[in-house]
Amino acid sequence: MLQIKGTIFDIRSFSLHDGPGIRTTIFFKGCPLCCAWCHNPEGQKVEIEKINCTRIVDSKKFPLSELVGYEISVAQLMQQLESDRPFFEQSQGGITLSGGEPLLQSAFCKAVLQAAEEQEIHTALDTCGFATNAVFADVAQHAKLVLYDLKIIDLHQHRLMTAENNDLILKNLEWLSKQSIPIFIRIPLIQNITDTEQNIHALRQIIEKTPHIESIDLLPYHQFARNKYKNLNLEYTLSELDNYPKEKAEELQFFFKNSAPRVTIGG
Ligand code: SF4
Known about the structure:
- 31% of the residues lie in helices and 27% in strands.
- By secondary structure, it is of the alpha/beta class.
- The strands form 2 sheets. A 9-stranded mixed β-sheet has the order 5-1-2-6-7-8-9-10-11. A two-stranded antiparallel sheet has the order 3-4.
- α1 packs across α3 (106-118) and α4 (133-140) runs parallel beside α6.
- The longest helix is centred in the middle third of the chain and has 13 residues, at 106-118.
- The structure holds iron/sulfur cluster.
- Residues 31, 33-35, 38, 40, 43-44, 99-101, 128 line the site of iron/sulfur cluster.
């Protein structure tokens, strides 16, 4: 199990928004969805890829090529995470598997969750929920917490904005609701896409009939990803969209206030 390898594109320590306490987030490469607003486009392809970027030194620009992604075994990853253990213990934090979509590399994802469990490190699985139920159940049962993305409830709109249907996502949420694993629902706030009146009411209806939801995290859209799309030579259809207005995010926080014990802006 410790020899299983996966492809990741980043490991970030001291994260405060990917679950409780201080966390180290591991970003898996590859995602089955293609959300128009994705702020980690470098995580969408499972393959290691080359990006062109510019480094500025003494006000001069230098063109650069960099590889995004690298292979790592479970053993190597666990060894690397060991140095963050004191922070996990002091803050009741742990590790969060994110991406991309961790379930796309399900064997590696499951092995990391199991290795962390053996070493008594708390785990959170940050997932878009798009996987067969067999894969989802096989992996998610090993997580201590699931951060579950819910984006758009209308099937056609979901397909238009993410390139896939949401039927597996809703079925897996139903399965998850029957387990005892705590759930944080994560909703990206994208103007006129996920925050339409129809969608937020549909989201609330689903959330309120799902047990074990401990938090709703509203994630306002920001423009940070623009340069990433340019560097990857990808079209960014939302390039003109402004950052999500703070007042609207607060209105939605109020709208969801009775739907979960905690409603945050930003996680
Ligand atoms: S599910 Fe997340 S990582 Fe995948 S495309 Fe959508 S926003 Fe990006």
